Amino acid sequence: MDSALILAQLALGALGVLGIAVSAPGEWPSQGLRVLFGLAITVLVARLSLRQVIKLSPYFYLVVLVLLVAVLFIGLAPAGSESRRWLAVPGFNFTLQPSELMKVAVIAYLAAFFHNHLGNWQIWRPMVVVGIAAGLVVAQPNISTALFIFVLALTIMLAAGITLTRLLSISVAAALIAALVAGPYLSQYSYIKDRLTGFSDLWGAQQQTQTISFQAIQAQRTLIRAGLVGVGPGQPMSVPAADTDMIAVAIGHTLGLLGLTTLIALYLIIAVRGIAIAGRLSGPGSLLAAGATAYICGQAAINLLVAAGLLPVTGMPLPFVSYGLNSLVSTSIAIGFIHSGYRQSQLEAAP
């Protein structure tokens, strides 16, 4: 396994535990256990050969697709929320969020598809795979995650070297399929408009700072007060979701700009190593490593831009850092794909 990736994953997990200790003090021990569990998942996935990943990927995609359909009928929603995104796991005090798993499922499926079919494939297959997955996530509703899955799919297709004509055809058709799947559900929800209005108010008149733009305003003010080195642990802060979507603010509050710079540096390490490993490989290993790197670092970039007030609130967690298990499991699988590619590159380089 790649030592730089392991160290980056552990360091991000440690920063996450620190942020949770500040924002939700009673939860940091359980998050520490989740970080170790995520590392164990990474090790298990890394031990799979690329051939095994490719063989299992269609089944993995289909299982997650069934779970996404189940969410629409028996999904759970937090109190006061309009969104149904979770499934209760019988016998466990745990809820499963299939949309997080769909990110890695799409990466693995498309990597397998383009490898198995090389240049001879029918264009409707990726249209349906991407369109239905994105549409079911939109229907929860979860627009930001659906768009992110769509972008991940485009990344895999670009890495596979498909022509611009096919890329545009797949993109338009998949978007239409997603709209058809999700259309009947969207009229029920108002949070999308509120988030866009809140972002506009943050950089505009700031007349709704106690309502729809409260989270973004508080995050911005907290980071400004933190300065270069932060205020240290134990100091109160009042930012909603500071243990999940806004955990970067909790870290910035405690460690200041230096803490946020460390976060960015760790994701850059993952990006550099992931791209280097993808470049050493050909076929499915290259696509898996490229897709997994785009997933982890792309989602990190979106989360950090939201925390800085440069994007509307999306609800997307910070990889390896945010409180909870669903995102941690998904990103741990993704970085396991990169490790699997690294093992393959080492075998190919051996005399």
Topology (SSEs and partners):
Elements: H1 3-23, H2 28-46, H3 50-74, E1 87-88, E2 95-96, H4 98-117, H5 124-138, H6 143-160, H7 164-186, H8 191-202, H9 214-226, H10 247-280, H11 284-307, H12 326-349
Antiparallel strand pairs: 1-2
Helix pairs in contact: 1-2, 1-10, 2-12, 3-4, 3-5, 4-5, 4-6, 4-11, 4-12, 5-6, 5-7, 6-11, 9-10, 10-11, 10-12, 11-12
Features:
about 350 residues, mainly alpha, two-stranded antiparallel sheet, 12 helices, 2 strands, globular
Describe the overall structure.
With 351 residues, the chain is mostly helical. It has one domain. The chain has twelve helices and two strands. It has helices spanning 3-23, 28-46, 50-74, 98-117, 124-138, 143-160, 164-186, 191-202, 214-226, 247-280, 284-307, 326-349, and strands at residues 87-88, 95-96. Strands 1-2 form a two-stranded antiparallel ribbon. A hairpin with a 6-residue loop joins strand 1 and strand 2. Helix 10 runs antiparallel to helix 11. The protein is globular, with a radius of gyration of 20 Å. The protein starts with a helix and ends with a helix. The model has no long low-confidence stretch (mean pLDDT 85).
Write a concise synopsis of the structure shown:
It contains twelve helices and two strands. By secondary structure, the chain is mainly alpha-helical. A two-stranded antiparallel sheet has the order 1-2.
Helical amount: over 70%
Low-confidence stretches: none
Given the helix and strand composition, which structural class is it?
Answer: mainly alpha
The biggest beta sheet reads: 2 strands, antiparallel
As laid out across the biggest beta sheet, the strand order is 1-2
Distance between the termini: 19 Å
Query: What is the average of the pLDDT values?
Result: 85
Number of helices: 12
Strand content: under 5%
**Helix/strand order:** HHHEEHHHHHHHHH
Supply the number of structural domains. 1
Global shape? globular
If you compute it from the alpha carbons, what radius of gyration comes out, rounded to the nearest whole angstrom?
20 Å
Compute the number of strand runs: 2
